[in-house]
């Protein structure tokens, strides 16, 4: 992955998060963060 592609992808993800927070608030982001943490713990178990 080139630097330009990584930067474009990062900006798209960041802008999607900002738009999501502006439209729907931050309540579901906490839920998603908890689920992501559980997923990383589960993946570390299988490592």
Secondary structure elements and pairings:
Elements: H1 3-24, H2 27-45
What does this protein look like?
The structure is a single chain. The chain starts with a helix and ends with a helix. The protein has one domain (3-45). The longest helix has 22 residues, at 3-24. By secondary structure, the chain is mostly helical. The protein has helices at residues 3-24, 27-45.
List key phrases describing it.
47 residues, mainly alpha, flat
Output the helix-strand order.
HH
Give the low-confidence spans: none
Total number of beta strands: 0
Strand content: under 5%
Shape: flat
User: How much helix, percentage-wise, in residues?
Assistant: over 70%
Indicate the structural class: mainly alpha
Rounded average pLDDT: 89
Q: Give the N-to-C terminal Cα separation.
A: 25 Å
Overall structural domain count: 1
How many alpha or pi helices?
A: 2
Overall radius of gyration:
14 Å
In a few lines, what is going on in this structure?
With 47 residues, the chain is mainly alpha-helical. The protein contains 2 helices and no strands.
